[in-house]
Amino acid sequence: MTAETFRTIWLKPDDPSIVQIIDQRLLPHEYSVHDLRTWQDADTAIAEMYVRGAPLIGATAAWGLYLAALATPTVAGVSSAAEALLRSRPTAVNLRWAIERILTLAAANGDKGLVDAIGTDAQAICDEDIEISRGIGRNGVRLLEEISRSKNGGVVNVLTHCNAGSLATINYGTATAPIYFAQQQGIDVHVWVDETRPRNQGSQLTAWELAESGISHTLIVDNAGGHLMQHGDVDIVITGTDRTTRTGDVANKIGTYLKALAASDNGIPFYVALPSTTIDWRCRDGVQEIPIEERDAEEVSHILGMHNGQLTRVQTAMSGTPIGNPAFDVTPARLVSGLITERGVCKASEDGLLGLFPEMVDT
Length: 363
Ligand code: MRU
Hints:
Bound molecules: 5-S-methyl-1-O-phosphono-5-thio-D-ribulose
Largest sheet: 7 strands, mixed
CATH class of the largest domain: Alpha Beta
Helix content: 25-40%
CATH architecture of the largest domain: 3-Layer(aba) Sandwich
CATH topology of the largest domain: Rossmann fold
Distance between the termini: 36 Å
Number of domains: 2
Strand content: 15-25%
Oligomer: single chain
Radius of gyration: 20 Å
Number of strands: 16
Structural class: alpha/beta
Shape: globular
Strand order of the largest sheet: 6-5-4-7-10-15-16
């Protein structure tokens, strides 16, 4: 289990004008804490993926607005930083959710006491996220218990894609939360970790997290999952999501859709773990409506790794090769066995989601 005190973002204890993050670009080779001093620093940290993962992107934007208020303690100042932050990454809806929450608070609060009000709410967003991850863990572990029982206590093999772990949230993660709870309950669990090209969130982040937590895991290339499923080596797939529509379509890291197809062909349950902050209640059709981020071609033409003790970028593709780099894809609800949320597990459908979140019916 991730240490209870582990955090991915926090206010510097002796200097509340600085927000601190882990520079995830350097993991697993280097654990480096990075200071955010301005909202522009927060914007860069999100856009250039010092921080990533839907819930952490939202929390970083909230703290970015706190930094904006420190520099210009007016609702107008915060609103103009919000406009820029909203453009930092397009797919994870937690960004919009967190910014809208802080802007609503700022409008109600007015200029007086704005810094304290926003700081308190940014911290609340982080504290709530931890509780949400715990809820996902409590609800999702039941699926792993059931598989363990059906295998008479044999090893439960989970396949996951990208990093939907502690590093993508404030602590505990979404897809990993049920795995951490399973470990606590003594369930024998093993995780197949997709490498997740091009940014390698699986090999660099998920494998690091699982190793730190003492959870048995094996790193595989992205193309290995289907083969493992055909040979009975995968009991369940659990991924995270960056945006889930009210109808249960799921946007997640590129390649998730192919895993869902392979799982469906092999009759393997495919679950998606998400905080309710990742549901876009205004969106019905994921494939048509969710904006998919197109990232830099260099993420595909080059690869980053350690060479002679130095983080080194190496070119793998021929110079000038035309490159496409869509960072996310959408898995239609029909391929999703269920959604694991902080309120329970439901069908990937509007009825399923509204059954857990009835207050959103008119949204
Ligand atoms: O590009 P990233 O690393 O921000 O993408 C992250 C993912 O796709 C995660 O799986 C998703 O945000 C869920 S995180 C709890």
